[in-house]
Amino acid sequence: MNKILSLFFLLLSLQLFAGGGEKKDTVQALVVSVQKDDPFDLDSMSGKDIISLIDSLLDLDAVPANLAKEINAYAEEKLLKHDFYISLTGFYDSSIYPSNSLYQKWDTYNLYPYRESLREKDDEVKLIIADSLNHCNFVPPIKGLITSNFGWRDGRSHNGMDIDLQVWDPVKASFDGMVRISRYHPGYGRVVVIRHYNGLETLYAHLHRLKVEPGDVVEAGQVIGLGGSSGRSTGSHLHFEVRFKGKALNPRHLIDFNNNCLVSDSIKLIKTKWSYTAVPLGIDYHTVESGEHLYGIAKKYGTTITNLCQMNGIRRNRPLRVGQKLRIGG
Ligand SMILES: [Zn+2]
User: Fold this and answer.
1) What pLDDT does 322 receive?
2) Which of 37, 55, 126, 152 could staple 5 via S-S, CB 3.0–4.6 A?
3) Per-residue model confidence (pLDDT) at position 225
């Protein structure tokens, strides 16, 4: 699934800043120009204008795909620049509930009760995701074929990744943590949500059997349920989500599903107006220069075009832009 669309999902999914119709004229003009295939130029707009624009798009019934792509390409570039984020915070505390100072809420019924949670200080958050001292080991929930990626699917957002499995296959906790949810949900079926010590939460859906209860302390690799097809599901698979403060992250930004390991031992979550985007720490970006193409870039960093496309959510045939930042590695 195209990362651009995933990012767009992030933009649209939250609706934290819905309202405000003053930009509607601009939006309508853009929509009309997109429908006519006229060129439009987001680069001439300021960051604030773009945010208002996206804000207004939430009022529309449907957003033209071209416009969504442009906005996301723009946001993707800007997000990697320093002026979009400011402060650093970390969350370690002594409560029995993992990351309690961050959430101040331990809800064992609602999957994501964190609507109010984005705060000024959360502009940029560094999370250590693999650190045995801080109980942050990683084990893949199940090793299997990815059948659906995070992002936009059939006109709906897909908040996680689908991994193929057989009914009864053991599903494991990805990181150490405490089980917050273990219940039946009409959509997710039998579902487990684990809160981790770094503030991330992971969700495991469509299970056939639940093997843990809320409050259980689990270790990475511990079996938390058996795979199945419960809830709204066609065929047995694991639907796996990674969230921070209720906001879905693209699991591929943390986890290298080809090798079943972490992309990086720590990540930086950069708050956007609407959500977070996860950027691996210790992994550099390549800035596209004139005349460069995916083949050359992949070769330079010892990776494959497929990997580059997956990491960056781009299609092979999409032309690269000069100045575009590409994630390398993972
Ligand atoms: Zn799914």
Assistant:
1) 81
2) 152
3) 98
What is the Cβ-side half-sphere exposure of residue 150, based on CA atoms within 13 angstroms?
29
158 C-alpha to ligand 1 centroid (Å): 6
CATH topology of domain 285-327: Membrane-bound Lytic Murein Transglycosylase D; Chain A (3.10.350)
Q: In angstroms, what is the span from residue 15 Cα to ligand 1's centroid?
A: 21
- Closest among 202, 204, 186, 159 to 12, alpha carbons compared: 159
Quote the ligand 1 centre to 32 CA distance (angstroms).
Answer: 34
Place of tokens 């992002």: 151
The H or E element spanning position 217 is strand 217-218
What confidence score (pLDDT) does residue 317 get? 75
Q: Which one, of 159, 166, 207, 211, lies nearest residue 9 by Cα?
A: 159
CATH architecture of 133-280: Distorted Sandwich (2.70)
Domain range list for the chain = 3-83, 133-280, 285-327
Question: What distance in Å separates the CA atoms of residue 111 and residue 25, rounded to the nearest whole number?
Answer: 37
pLDDT mean for each 10 residues of the chain (330 residues) = 40 36 55 60 63 59 62 56 27 66 85 66 60 57 91 76 96 93 96 89 97 94 96 95 86 83 72 63 71 83 77 74 72
Residue 160 Cα to ligand 1 midpoint, Å, equals 6
Q: What is the pLDDT of residue 45?
A: 66
* Residue 203 CA, ligand 1 centroid: distance in Å: 11
